[in-house]
Here is the input.
Amino acid sequence: MAKITKLDDIVSLCKRRGFIFQSSEIYGGLASCYDYGPLGVELKNNVKRAWWKNVVQMRDDVVGLDCSILMHPMVWKASGHADKFADLIAECKKCNVRTRVDHLAEKDAEHAEEHTEHVAIDSVQAAAHDLSRKLCPSCGTVGRFTEPMPFKLMFETQMGANVDDSMTMQLRPETAQGIFANFRNVLDTTRVKIPFGIAQIGKSFRNEVTTKAFIFRTREFEQAELEFFCEPGTDEQWFEHWKEARFNWYLDLGISKENLRFREHDPDELAHYAKGCVDVEYLFPFGSGDWQELEGIANRTDYDLRQHQRGMRTLNRWFENGRDVNRVTLADEAEDYQSGPLSYFNDEQKRRYIPYVIEPSAGIDRSALAFLVDAYDEEEVRGETRNLLRFNPAIAPIKAAVFPLVKKDGMPEIARNIYDDLKKYFNCFYDEKGAVGRRYRRQDEAGTPFCITVDGQTLEDKTVTVRQRDSMEQVRVSTDQLKGHLREKLDM
Here is the structure.
């Protein structure tokens, strides 16, 4: 069994089988933008369903939201994004290519250390960076860079039909802030009590300087985030709980344990709001193998809710400054912030406090890529190479394919009836073109767990052949027991 080591194999498979296409390909494509094809959208939706089932549906202490992409500009002022969400970049003086400073490799270094470094937009002069031995990733020139400069990561757009009422807005760079802004709404309209979580899945946008490796880092991406609110003093316990829960989610869906690890953030790389942070990393096939972040789990303390309380008290200043957040200074934090509008009152303890927050934040696109990479396999069967995707059935785009052995003797009609019945319960595929062996191979490459073949024996005893993808073993199953057989195997 030969495991692939090159991302090119995955990219080729995705294009060939209809998982992922380059966006706007008929016009030459748009860099760092991708479209999910018929199989890809099913895979991605199944990953989202699996996350939602695990984080929301199967728990009594988490509820869901779906917040808008466009939010009030003061949200990003209060959260710190308006002032701090930027990357330091440097431009090569020879080829004029701009690169993130933290992505520049040392001369003769085998790999560059890669850590996200968001900086205050007005603090570049205070940051000392020695680029004299740094290598330009484009032309290979060493040490010929401009001074580092800030690069804003939020996309801007305009809201309003006329000049007089137009307002500069930002596309959200993360889904978390919509949850914090709705914290009071959730408390007032549900029966939740601390500890509890609010989850959502949605699109986010970042004007990344450097995109990377297919769908791994793009400017438009989908996040699955949970903000779990807990009492101060219990945060470290919940931090450990969510570390274990999220790591096990990937294992339960089929990721190989040897391809997963935790990486603790060093104190000097922690985000400004974080008490602690750990990444779940996957060994992606970038180059000869590269550990990269799948998901971050952060202890955000009470930073966000406190900041939004300050933002609420600052709102009048936003109007007074022509609705320009760059001219607004947040209100000082009041001495009684613990009793502010975003605080929580504990009925049993008869005290009020600002909850701490544990945040598991996963990238859906990165997760889909990891599942593709980990599922991909090649093996030799009777002198031929069989390419297959060993997806966990829960995320497989197609659960079962139905074939008539030949297009005669009533087999297509029986197969069609079986297909029409099964597709009421899970995603199925019907195929009657080509030799049955070739049809098996096509479904192997799509990751379909089971193939059902109607043959001559079906006409005699009303049984069909059910072939399992990974082992290629075949069993006879009665047509009246087929649905139950598959649902048991698929755990649906």
